[in-house]
Amino acid sequence: MSISIFGQLVRFCERHEIRKINKFFYNVIEQYSVYHFNLLKLSGHLWSVFSNDVWSTICAEGVYIDQGAICCLSPNGRLFVVNPNTRSSVPLEVVNNECLVSVSQRPEALWVLTAAGDIFIRVGLSAKSLLGSCWEKLDLHQI
Predict the structure, then answer these.
(1) pTM (predicted TM-score)
(2) Strands lying side by side in the sheet with 119-123
(3) What are 67-119's pLDDT values in tens digits?
């Protein structure tokens, strides 16, 4: 993916591109005739790189204004929690150091899917505790 903001281009991978024209941001998916436009006003005062690491997945649905954290999966399946205010990243190990394939989050909620097909939920997340306290395995026998 490439991000072109105010004339600067940053390349992430080969298939996606995010560009800015006038007041609009849009997402271009190469080889497809699909464009996603942002028609709302974007505000902010600073764009900066929070990490030089390579991530396979970045999940920021748990960030709200100045609270929450960004969850990042490394290419080898390790989970890192990044505090966007301090830009510090902390590895968050799952039970038995299982390899993770997916992460999903909301404010005060975090779920991960392991390569073995298990789902774990992080307990104790809050605005004051970005790391929570422990993992609980979701019982899938009910489903």
Answers:
(1) 0.64
(2) 100-106, 109-114, 119-123, 134-137
(3) 888 899 998 999 999 888 787 889 998 888 889 999 999 888 899 999 999 99
Let me know if domain 57-142 sits in CATH 2.115.10.20.
Answer: no
Question: Boundaries of CATH 2.40.10.480 in the chain?
Answer: 57-142
Label each residue of the chain as H, E or C: CEEEECCEEEECCCCEEEEEECCEEEEEECCCCCEEEECCCCCCCCCCCCCCCCCCEEECCCCECCECCEEEECCCCCEEEEECCCCEEEECCCHHHCCEEEEEEECCEEEEEECCCCEEEEECCCCCCCCCCEEEECCHHHC
Q: 125 exposed, middle or buried (CB, 10 Å; 0-12, 13-18, 19+)?
A: buried
